Amino acid sequence: MQETLQSLLQQRLGDALLKLHVDCSLALVTPAADIRFGDYQTNAAMVIAKQERKNPREVAAQLIEQLQVDDIAATPEIAGPGFINFRLTTSFLEKQIATLLNDPRCGVALVDKPQTIVIDFSSPNVAKPMHVGHIKSTVLGDALARIARFLGHHVITDNHLGDWGTQFGKVIYGVKNIAKSKIETVHQLVELYREVNEKEEHDPEMKAAVREELVKLQQGDAENVAIWKEVVAISWKEFENIYQQLNISFDECLGESSYNEALEPLVKRLEQEGIAEESQGALVVFFKNHPTLAEKPFLIRKADGGFLYATTDIATLEYRKERWHPDAIWYVCGMPQQLHFEQLFATAKKIGISCELRHISFGSILGEDRKMMKTRSGENVELNALLEEALDRAFKLVSEKNPGFSDAEKKEIAQIVGLGALKYADLMQHRTTDTIFSWEKMLSFQGNTAPYLQNAYVRIQSILRKAKEAGEVVAFDSIKLQEDAERTLALQLLQFAEVVPAILSDARPNILCLALYELANSFHRFYEQCPILKAEESVKQSRLALAQLIGCVLRCGLELLGIKVPERM
RNA sequence: GCGUCCGUAGCUCAGGGGAUAGAGCAGGGGAUUUCUAAUCCCUUGGUCGCAGGUUCAAAUCCUGCCGGGCGCACCA
Asked: Which residue, A225, A246, A267, sits at the end of a domain?
């Protein structure tokens, strides 16, 4: 297991505590809260002082006497109420940074105990277009999958498509009775659905006919099944196009329809086992002694005998358990569905499914008016339109800056920058905070945005290209950290190994975004202050190597978020 | 009504027991014959919704209140 700076210091602290015969798991080494306090700090003395009713600064002094860090840091200092501050030596940082060169993992260790994790995300509904509401689940789920895989976990991504349900009665009725020509797009399906929906309101006969079509589908009627399959295929074609643009793929796309056969026996079993009971004509699961769910029954069969998405979700859970024996299942799904997942997980407990179940929820996307984002006519904003606008805006941006690029190159760059900006905007905030959608902000070159990070990368590549053209053969074997800017960069580069593993504990890619932003910011400062190509030979070598390393970490970090980097922009 | 999440600078947000609460934008002032200024530097701006409590230490934990979002039986 590779050490990070933090774990190394933590170990040294542990050794010192051992010598003092103190057992204290709360004594933590953390990155310094402020550069004035050095590189890392520990509150160990204060925690121990509390336990043993001693003076914290005295405890700190004793601790420092036992701390063996002279090979890596200056003598630790006591500060404030009893913090111990560590300042790593430059030579140690230089030594450590050398291990990063040529490391494709940028210093990030694999986890000790790989887990099998099923990640359920995206999950759009068939016969409807994907809209803004799907983007967070899709982008966040993909990023988490990439990160978990990178750390060595066995990840199964599963797109739980909404490809079954009452809406198909209407769609099939529409296809059979209303459609004038062959249906080829999701928009036509939506139109059809809308028309049927409106007409059946004041037409009981039609309502009955719609219902009949649904029943026939559920009973396996050949014609209706064929229409259903066609509808799924039309939808999938459009989804696939979006996923392709977003560079997102799935191991499995087991939609709700995959579990049709399992529902009946499942419900019977739950009833027999006394887990579910009848109530007001429906079959429900009660959680009688649960603090908050006591009065919230979980409906698994309607009074009319139909099943619900709760039913499908239980069946899906059992299927996943059986097929993959996962250690964890993550549901990347919006906040409004919290109650549903609490109920689902409580049910899982009742039926003896013990793997870790997490609802990874996230905030909504709001318009600049702070209300749910809608089009002027009050409809959901379609994802297709959103992607198109991202590409458009990015294309204009590139064209302004680099009119000389060919259209093909501009398009390629627009794709990377525009979609990167869109994804990054969904990942850079704490996931539960609502996002206020703003093209201007996400495409800005200032602040914590994808273009800012991509631009840092592009500048690095430009320098490396020039170096190559000038015939520089860079021996990336030694980095000398002379300037403050260089030292800061080295520290941040080494801390990448600490940040990435920390993301999953609370599913928060935003901490990676922040770290990358700070790295890019430090690079830009370094870029202003420290000439690279014009520096004298030995310094040039070191700075080129440092720049290359920054580029690698930026690229690696952005890739973990599902974002690409351009070579020019 | 019950549940749940949230209230931090003019705006958008970090920070979720530790030091003097941080960024970006906006406002003010500077830097460019460039290694891509799509950048950088300096600066103004905050009783962390309010009131109690726990603690050596609270924006952070607990309780109450105020204000908002979302969810609560046959949609997903």
From this structure: A246
Structure tokens at A405: 């690029």
Residue A240 within any structural domain of the chain: yes
Last residue of a domain, one of A88, A107, A133: A88
Quick check: A87 and A73 in contact, CB under 8 A? yes
Query: Would residue A535 count as lying in a domain?
Result: no
How many domains are there within chain A?
2
The nucleotide lying nearest A397 (C-alpha to C1') is: B38
* Nearest nucleotide relative to A430: CA against C1': B14
User: Which segments of chain A have a pLDDT < 50?
Assistant: 1
For strand B, which nucleotides have at least one atom less than 7 Å from a protein CB? 2-6, 12-16, 18-20, 22-26, 35-41, 55-57, 69-76
For residue A227, being part of any structural domain is answered with yes
CATH number at residue A20: 3.30.1360.70
Domain residues for A27?
Answer: 5-88
Q: What would the pLDDT profile of A256-286 be if each residue is shown by its tens digit?
A: 999 999 999 999 999 999 999 999 999 999 9
Tens digit of pLDDT for each residue in A400-421? Answer: 999 999 999 999 999 999 999 9
pLDDT score, position A376? 77
Q: What is the model's pLDDT at position A476?
A: 65
Q: Please give the protein residue whose CA is closest to the C1' of the nucleotide B55.
A: A50
CA of A368 to C1' of B25 (A): 15
State the nucleotide closest to A394 in CA–C1' terms.
B38
A432 CA: nearest nucleotide by C1': B5
Distance between the alpha carbon (CA) of A552 and the C1' atom of B28, Å: 38
Among residues A378, A381, A379, the alpha carbon closest in space to that of A365 is found at A381
User: Taking chain A, what is the end-to-end CA distance rounded to the nearest angstrom?
Assistant: 38
Q: Which of A231, A247, A152 is nearest to A189 (CA)?
A: A231
Residue A280 zone, left/alpha/beta (φ > 0; ψ -120 to 50; rest): left
| Residue A478 in domain | no
- What is the rounded CA–CA span in Å between residue A150 and residue A152? 5
